Amino acid sequence: MNGWNPPKITTERLVIRPMVVSDLSSVHAFTSAYSATRYGNWLGGTDPASVARYMADTVARYGRPPRCDLGVTFNHRLIGGLAFRQVWLSPPAIEVGWVLHPDVAGQGLATEALTGMLGYLTAAFEDVTRFEARVHAQDSGAQKVLIRLGFLEEGILRGGLDSEGQPADSKMYGLLRNELKL
Fold first, then answer.
1. Is 143 helix (H, G, I), strand (E, B) or coil?
2. Among the residues of the chain, which ranges form H helices?
3. 126 vs 172: CA distance, rounded Å
4. What is the CATH number of the domain that holds 157?
5. Can you tell me the distance from the alpha carbon of 121 to that of 114, in angstroms, rounded to the nearest whole number?
6. Is 3 a member of any domain?
7. Is 1 within the bounds of a domain?
8. 127 in a domain, yes or no?
9. Residue 131 sits in which domain range?
10. Measured between alpha carbons, how far is residue 31 from residues 28, 36, 56, 73, 81 in Å?
């Protein structure tokens, strides 16, 4: 162990924390709430076995940055996940991603969660100069969240596939440390 522990981040309405095995049913609830063809799937599957493999891998990775998946809780209920991982060494960059249960959409929770995580990342990883996010080209809600946080669209990643093997382009967004609006 290198002394690094996954963070617990508290915002006005959210607690962002390491996931535990007992979160399995909640994780399954928010990952299976979306059509795989709509946005793809960050877990590799929504069936209980795929979610269980994801949870086991997530918990096993704690203590080994720079990759970390965290749970997002609202009103003491796990409603989604937030993740970061180092993607470049030069310039030092971290990719962020999230998924929240569609039942809580439209309440500003994704913006609040990402703002909290970006604040943590800038303090914990002082050498990081760039943040990135990839979202499906059809996901206008996620694009609005990123723009609200100051991310700029940098291009289309063509030729991707969704979890059912159908063509699905993504958009790449970037934000430099000095552009942060925290």
1. helix
2. 24-31, 36-39, 48-61, 109-124, 140-148
3. 23
4. 3.40.630.30
5. 10
6. no
7. no
8. yes
9. 12-179
10. 5, 9, 16, 15, 9
Task: Please determine, for residue 37, whether its predicted confidence score (pLDDT) is greater than 50.
Answer: no
Residues 6+ away with beta carbon under 8 Å from 49: none
Residue 4 lies in a domain: no
Residue given tokens 């669209």 in the structure block: 153
- Helix (H/G/I), strand (E/B), else coil: 170: strand
pLDDT for the residue 24? 85
Residue 60: pLDDT over 90: no
Tokens of 17: 């924390």
Both tokens assigned to 113:
């969660």
Number of structural domains found in the chain: 1
Residues pairing with 30 in the sheet: none
Between strands 67-74 and 77-89, the pairing is antiparallel
Give the position of tokens 């030092």.
Answer: 92
Between the alpha carbon of residue 102 and those of residues 35, 105, 180, the distances in Å are 11, 5, 27
Q: What pLDDT is stored for residue 59 in this prediction?
A: 75
Q: What is the dihedral of CA 38, 40, 41, 45, to 10 degrees?
A: 90
pTM score: 0.86
Residues 96, 131: Cα–Cα separation, whole Å: 7
The rounded mean pLDDT for the chain is 85
